[in-house]
């Protein structure tokens, strides 16, 4: 981006704020302007809501007009920055800044640090040093010179940690290049700024030692130890202590270039217990699983005087079953004084065969002190001796990694005083008398605690977002989390964000989650290898489903079987925890399991995989067509050119069940369309998108609506099918209207109309005319809008399309009301209401009744408006666009106030604002905020009214919604005058009058 004169634009925030354009320093305004701009530049490209900018701009309680002042500050910044509207962009309820990394010192810092990491990985340390030197040179001090207030100060602290991490790597590299003497001065300066920072202090000690200053190096350790004791009451950490001991002993490992690592002395061996105990060590950083642990302890301590108690844990590989069982066993040790024995049956151990029953019994008997010469050779004899040995004893036996019940039964004690804990990947339903506890993935908060415990709280606190993303990418699976954190511990220069970036590549995620002998892929492969061939193939194919949940119908389509067989296969996979079951009838693959399944695909599976995907697309196309028949009975059916799926479909017997299916399949349907388009199934993509956007439109999920429409247009163009292109363009036009993308919408609607005309498709042509009427109405081009809408209504009436006619009539009524032609608005709205009632279309009826109420209000017929609104409110349900309900509620607030029902008016107003801010289009939000603003003006709540009108102005002016832009300015003028801002009031009133006049809306025809 360049300024108006062509010179480059640049912002520097790593110190006092600076803005430059064409070599000239910009004057950026006062404190509020600077804080707002810095907040936006800290997160370039991200929308920050006005409420967050208010928190940034004021240290303590902000004034009542804070939101208005933020908008004024943004307007002022736009004037001061060349091309300011392209730099500070309005988006939804807030703003974002549009700059590149080269235009922002913070972005350049990140780029150079990343380049340094790549240079290190490529074996070019000298280049990495130069990159880091350039990155660190960008820093001129704290953000806004330390005067930015609490919010910016917090950001400054985080950025300082980034600077220190870069500095540590910078000095580490220079030490490895033999520049010890050259870095001493710089390190002393940084240590002086951060005297308690042990890593920097260690680097300084090493630099001094390698420069021949052993005494000075040892003195640095003495200084930091005294400081730590005095300030924090702790001693230096083990790494710095080892550095000190190495220097004291003149360790040769510290003498040469490169970082050193000194061996840690082994801890003394623990004393042997009198009773045999072969339990593995309890993890010091065992985290979470509190509920499961309590359940296990409860079952274990439940008295059973008749038989040995058995408590079994099942769960997918890597879920932490063994760690949990070991922790419980240690907790239960006092209850079993005669011994605590662990045996790993290796049912799922990578690279090893399961242990035989005879070998397992031999191990157990020897653990109990039975001499080898007394142990029988045969399995039956060993089992008998094992049971006899335990008679009268209280022993805890942990049988780990069992593949089946047959491996466990011979090991079970006969003594009622014993406890057996079992872990297995499969639930062994034929293990009689066992209490089962299924171990799922960890909860997000447990994953966060595990990452913090294994990496250290400080390291996680420095990158909290990356830590949360790391847990998500590891699928909250304990094994994956431990492998990931182990890699980070072994690579102290790696940041969490760096590993997260590597894990985001799904094709290499499993490779990343491997450390030494531990590997997520190897763990999963053992579960996979226990399956029969049919189940293995099904497992691979099911992973082709792009959505989250899989039901028996979509599974049947993928596998090419009926739903009963599909369910049997899914249940077999569930038994070995290769799929999960979030609720009855639904199955899903853990992210890492899905990655493993996808790794099984190759050239040999391509044909089978393609056939499975085509069956899935056929199924979803037929299912969505059937669902739309139930939910949108007046919808015109169009030929798809695709053979209809003839197998079993979900239960679409009524609207409620069909809505529930759409809700459950929502994410999967979006993914299915994207998959079809990506793989070149263009006809499927277009036809599926058409079915799904009906539902997205009805629910007000507008961004997804628009995204799917654009994808459909792309696929239709590639397909060269004019009929499908016309439909796709028509739907995209509606999406643009609802999102306030009016310029794009006009272009789309005109193309759609022209395509329909070329085909002789009068219905689509009429729909495009209606859409153009909507756009022209919103843009304030009322005469042109009227011509489009009249043509649409006439054509739809001639074609006997009552649903389309009703929708066009609501748009016509709204146009007349905006223009001040209220009698004509009443007539159009009444006709729309009648048609909607005949069709049973409650959503259209709600809109038409609201339009009728607007027209009555314009005529001063408030009682009639009240009756229409009561009917409208009674029609709303959660399946409808909540923006329609918000509009009815906002007008209800206005009407109730005029009829002197103040409490009711307040309730309606609050509900309207809450609804419209949950996700309605900017068009409806602007209109609702203006309406509630007028209600507040009459209550003399002028500051709140000003905020609402100001927000409405930003929304309306941002999309070109001229009538609401004018009403917003008029409202701002009244509020500003009431608050004593006369000059602003005059300015706003003049701007409003100019807009009203341009649209031909006379003073007496305007809303009051």
Notes on the protein architecture:
The chain has 1008 residues and is an alpha/beta fold. The strands form 5 sheets. It has a 5-stranded parallel beta sheet with strand order 8-9-10-7-11, sandwiched between helices. Strands 1-2-3 form a 3-stranded antiparallel beta sheet, with no helix packed on it.
Could you list some keywords that capture this structure?
1008 residues, alpha/beta, five-stranded parallel sheet, three-stranded antiparallel sheet, disordered N terminus
The count of DSSP E runs of length 2 or more, i.e. the number of strands, is: 16
| Strand order, sheet with most strands | 8-9-10-7-11
Given the C-alpha coordinates, what overall shape results? globular
Q: Count the helices. How many? A: 44
The proportion of strand residues reads 5-15%
Which structural class fits the helix and strand makeup? alpha/beta
N- to C-terminal distance: 44 Å
**Overall radius of gyration:** 35 Å
Q: Give the overall pLDDT as a whole number.
A: 86
Biggest sheet, open or closed, and with what strands and sense?
Answer: 5 strands, parallel
Subunit organisation of the chains: single chain
- Estimate the helix proportion, in percent: 55-70%
Low-confidence stretches: 1-6, 259-273
């Amino acid at each position: 981006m360049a300024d108006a004169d062509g010179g480059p634009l640049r912002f520097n925030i790593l110190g006092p704020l600076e803005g430059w354009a064409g070599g000239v320093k910009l004057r950026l305004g006062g404190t509020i302007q600077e804080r707002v701009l810095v907040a936006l530049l800290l997160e370039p490209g991200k929308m920050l809501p006005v409420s967050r900018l208010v928190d940034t701009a004021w240290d303590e309680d902000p004034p009542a007009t804070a939101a208005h002042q933020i908008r004024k500050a943004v307007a002022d910044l736009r004037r001061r920055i060349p091309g300011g509207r392209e730099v500070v962009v309005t988006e939804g309820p807030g703003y974002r800044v549009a700059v590149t990394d080269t235009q922002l010192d913070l972005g350049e810092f990140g780029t150079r640090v990343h380049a340094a990491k790549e240079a290190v990985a490529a074996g070019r340390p000298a280049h990495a040093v130069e990159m880091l030197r350039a990155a660190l040179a960008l820093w001129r001090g704290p953000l806004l010179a330390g005067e930015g207030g609490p919010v910016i100060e917090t950001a400054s602290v985080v950025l300082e940690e980034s600077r220190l991490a870069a500095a540590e790597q910078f000095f580490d590299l220079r030490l490895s290049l033999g520049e010890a003497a050259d870095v001493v001065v710089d390190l002393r300066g940084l240590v002086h700024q951060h005297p308690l920072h042990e890593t920097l202090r260690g680097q300084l000690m090493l630099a001094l030692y390698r420069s021949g200053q052993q005494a000075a190096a040892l003195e640095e350790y003495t200084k930091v130890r005294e400081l730590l004791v005095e300030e924090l009451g702790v001693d230096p950490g083990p790494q710095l202590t080892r550095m000190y001991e190495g220097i004291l002993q003149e360790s040769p490992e510290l003498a040469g270039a490169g970082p050193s690592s000194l061996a840690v002395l082994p801890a003394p061996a623990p004393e042997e217990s009198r009773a045999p105990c072969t339990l593995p060590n309890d993890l010091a950083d065992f985290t979470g699983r509190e509920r499961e642990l309590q359940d296990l302890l409860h079952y274990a301590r439940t008295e059973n005087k008749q038989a040995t108690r058995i408590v079994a844990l099942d769960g997918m590989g890597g879920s932490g079953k063994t760690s949990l069982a070991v922790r419980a066993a240690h907790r239960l040790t006092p209850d079993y004084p005669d011994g605590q024995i662990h045996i790993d049956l290796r049912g799922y151990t990578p690279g090893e065969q399961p242990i035989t029953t005879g070998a397992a019994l031999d191990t157990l008997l020897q653990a109990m002190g039975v001499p080898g010469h007394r142990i029988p050779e045969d399995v039956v004899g060993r089992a008998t001796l094992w049971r006899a040995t335990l008679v009268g004893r209280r022993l805890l036996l942990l049988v780990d990694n069992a593949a089946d019940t047959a491996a466990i039964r011979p090991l079970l004690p006969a003594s009622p005083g014993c406890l057996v804990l079992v872990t297995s990947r499969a639930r062994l339903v034929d293990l009689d008398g066992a209490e089962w506890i299924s171990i799922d993935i960890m909860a997000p908060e447990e994953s966060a605690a595990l990452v913090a415990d294994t990496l250290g709280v400080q390291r996680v606190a420095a990158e909290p977002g990356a830590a949360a993303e790391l847990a998500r990418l590891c699928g909250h699976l304990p094994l994956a989390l431990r492998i990931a954190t182990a890699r980070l511990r072994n690579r102290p220069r790696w940041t969490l964000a760096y590993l997260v970036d590597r894990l985001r590549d799904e094709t290499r995620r499993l490779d990343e989650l491997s450390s030494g002998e531990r590997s997520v892929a190897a763990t999963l492969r053992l579960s996979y290898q226990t399956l029969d061939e049919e189940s293995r193939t099904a497992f691979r194919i099911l992973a082709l489903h792009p959505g989250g949940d899989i039901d028996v119908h979509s599974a049947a389509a993928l596998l090419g079987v009926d739903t009963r067989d599909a369910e049997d296969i899914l249940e077999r996979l569930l038994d070995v925890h290769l799929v999960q079951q979030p609720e009855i009838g639904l199955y899903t693959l853990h992210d890492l399991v899905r990655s493993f399944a996808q790794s099984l695909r190759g050239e040999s599976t391509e044909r089978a995989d393609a056939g499975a995907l085509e069956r899935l697309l056929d199924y979803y196309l037929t299912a969505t067509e059937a669902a739309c028949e139930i939910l949108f009975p007046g919808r015109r059916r169009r030929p798809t050119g695709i053979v209809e799926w003839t197998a079993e479909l979900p239960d679409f017997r009524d609207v409620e069940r069909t809505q529930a299916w759409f809700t459950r399949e929502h994410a999967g349907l979006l993914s299915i369309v994207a998959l079809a388009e990506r793989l070149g199934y263009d006809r499927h993509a277009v036809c599926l998108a058409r079915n799904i956007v009906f539902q997205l439109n009805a629910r007000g999920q507008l961004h997804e609506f628009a995204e799917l429409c654009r994808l459909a247009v792309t696929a239709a163009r590639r397909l060269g099918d004019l009929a499908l292109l016309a439909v796709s363009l028509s739907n995209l036009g509606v999406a643009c209207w609802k999102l306030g993308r009016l310029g794009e919408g006009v272009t789309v609607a005109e193309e759609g109309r022209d395509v329909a005309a070329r085909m002789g498709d009068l219905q689509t042509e009429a729909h495009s005319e209606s859409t153009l009427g909507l756009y022209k109405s919103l843009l304030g081009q009322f005469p042109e809008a009227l011509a489009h809408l009249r043509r649409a209504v006439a054509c739809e009436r001639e074609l006997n399309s009552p649903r389309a006619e009703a929708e066009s009539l609501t748009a016509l009524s709204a146009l007349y009301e905006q223009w001040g032609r209220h009698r004509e608005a009443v007539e159009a709205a009444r006709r729309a209401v009648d048609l909607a009632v005949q069709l049973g279309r409650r959503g259209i009826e709600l809109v038409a009744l609201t339009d009728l109420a607007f027209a009555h209000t314009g005529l001063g017929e408030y009682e009639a408006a009240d009756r229409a609104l009561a009917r409208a409110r009674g029609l709303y349900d959660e399946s409808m666009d909540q923006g329609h309900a918000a509009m009815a509620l906002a007008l209800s607030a206005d009407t109730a106030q005029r009829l002197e029902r103040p409490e009711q008016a307040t309730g309606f107003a609050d509900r309207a604002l809450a609804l419209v801010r949950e996700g309605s289009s900017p068009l409806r939000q602007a209109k609702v905020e203006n309406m509630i603003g007028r209600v507040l003006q009459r209550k003399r709540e002028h500051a709140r009214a000003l905020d609402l009108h100001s927000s409405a102005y930003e929304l309306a002016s941002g999309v070109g919604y001229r009538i609401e832009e004018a009403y917003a300015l008029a409202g701002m003028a009244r509020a500003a005058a009431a608050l004593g801002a006369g000059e602003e009031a005059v300015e706003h009133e003049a701007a409003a009058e100019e807009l009203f006049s341009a649209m031909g809306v006379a003073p007496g025809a305007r809303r009051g």
